[in-house]
Design brief:
heterodimer; A: alpha+beta; Butyryl-CoA Dehydrogenase, subunit A, domain 2; four-stranded mixed β-sheet; four-stranded antiparallel β-sheet; globular; B: alpha+beta; Butyryl-Coa Dehydrogenase, subunit A, domain 1; Butyryl-CoA Dehydrogenase, subunit A, domain 3; 10 strands
Amino acid sequence: MDIELSADDLAFRTDVRAFFSSNAYKPGTDYMAWRSEWFAKAAAKGGWDVPKWPKAFGGPGWSPTQHYIWEQETATATLPFDMPFGVGMLAPILMGYGSKEQQERFMPDIRARKVNWCQGYSEPGAGSDLASLKTKAELSADGKTYTVNGTKIWTTAAHMADWIFCLTRTADTGKRQEGITFLLFPMKQPGIEVKPIITLGGSHTVNMVHITDVKVPVENRIGEEGQGWTYAKGLLQHERTGLAGISRSLVALEKLKEQAGSVKRGNGSLMDDPAFRAKVAALEVDLMALEFTELRSLAAASAGGALGPESSIMKLKGTEIQQRIAKLTVEAGGIYAAGWGHPVGPKFARNGMAGYLSSRAYTIYGGASEVQKDVIAKNVLGIKSGRK
Amino acid sequence: MNFDLSSEQQLLQDSVQRFVKDNYSLEARIAITDVEPGFNKAHWKTIAELGWLGLPFAEADGGFGGGPIETMLLMEAFGKGLVVEPYLASVVLGGGAMRRGAPKALKDAILPGVIDGTRQLAFGYAEEQARFDLEDVVTSARADGAEFVLNGTKSVVQNAASADHIVVSARTSGGQADRDGISLFLIDAKADGVERDNYPTVDGLRASEVKLTNVRVGRDRLLGEVGKGFAILQAVANDAILALSAEAVGAMEILYKDTVEYTQQRQQFGHALAEFQVLQHRMVEMFMEYEQCKSLLFRATLESAQGTTTAQRTIHALKHLIGKAGIFIAENAVQLHGGMGMTEELRIGHYFKRMLVIDAQFGNADHHLQQFAA
């Protein structure tokens, strides 16, 4: 066991830092132009635009330590915004289960961030119990075209998406998981209606998507009919480890300390208030531990391939920590956190409330915490499911 | 020992509950909060006609001589519907300061309008540097002949935009956090030098930053004695805590009951959510917290009504528990409603937001635990 970084790792870190600082966004300049250029330059570094892709598909092929360093550095640098759906979610499925033609057709535009994707998984009746989904895909008699009908919900960024990757039901017989098929189709076409859902933070990021008689050529099916669940499941696991948001929490915690430090109390600040200080300290302890849980998990993955049991707690602990930071930000704002029309009091107060309200979804999406715990009890602790 | 309501109290509770049931569906509430002034003038008139605006005022002042128990019954029922009419601001806060401190002539001039609903009040006590400390006042009031000249900014003043008069705390002597030297004044909301920056709060209510620049106010508008306003300020804050806690208890009841109902309907994995033991236990915890809050609310309200020496400490205990348990119940109501709990379409989220603001009003859970332990 050793936590020192090797000379190579240190050199890598210097390289990453230099890249981030020399390509930082300059306020006042064209953001979208900078974004394209940033990704192009990152690609030229040897796959830095797609850090998690394997080398065979153009990724950098980093070691776990290099991934860790990258994560740490991204926490304090300003990277261009990037939706996870194409590069992070669909691409791994295409790599694993897509045909060569599909890979060649979709991956270049995903990598160039030219096509925006959204994820059509949850349905009004299928939330945590995703396998109960009902959106129907019927194959024509000539076997060439699916006709899709149904409703998807909580579809993030559907209103900005060009394409959707969608779980559909092609069979009602047998195990529920076995009748699910993975289809890709464009969003901008008749038969697709996107309705905004306004969430508690007052923002529009998620949607309801009604799909009516949408025709999907069979070439847009990933893998085999009825195997979509298997493809999506691997991705869900991947998504859940990614949701821990450790580097983001590290930054948020530092910011919280700074914000609380700006709230005057007597001769000191809110950070001198014993109750508040203790809560911040407890968060820091949990975050320190979780950082190493992630490292252990990464190391196990690099040694043997499979993620260790410790990886299962990442989403649970990580999201809980994110929520606690958000809550303390609201507390730091005091009565000013209530202000909604325009900012009053300390600058952070208004965004703090919106952030906290949004954070309540972290323990619901990507597998609600209660379901995560069921999965851990069954798969990690080996407890046979009995009573509900 | 007896927790039964008198027949008058029972009547009051029934009629407030009926008002809420008839007027406060989620859609109706949103229709009110979406537009200015953020409350319904017809409802305000109804509330006045039902006599509720006169509830805590002495009969000599034209009121009904009610006490903390009556206010509790009314606010708990209001909490079940998240009523937005400015009862707290005008009657409990502004009215509370007036009935305690105003000279007779001023009461006679102002209170009849407050009670018949034609005038509204607001109460400006918070300042940015003070956080939750009532005695931290830098807004100044300088004596100038028969008048005082006020300068400073009062923060997050509920209902200031609609109020005709605002009660403000200002320092006439002493250091920034001294209890002595604070005076209370009734100023006209449209007086020269009063500038209101109005905004909605996250719970759909309305507040303002009220900037005072050389605002001149006569001595006849002083509530209580010069420099002795803190006792009134604290008594009004205690009333407010009792009222807000009652509102919170009403809201908690909706939150836990809606959750119990929803989880019995929502099917996942071939079962109603409520069949899962882990969710049953969570809902039992929500229910227990609600009952504990209600108990402490009764305790604090009864001690206040009787004026016991322990009342102040019990009020600190109450506000701590309300803040802590209220957010626990609300967060779990959202969690158990899943994605739907995160939307504006269900009432859960609206109750959640109100609970967050209640925690921040008149000192949050941490603040009152520290006061309790001190």
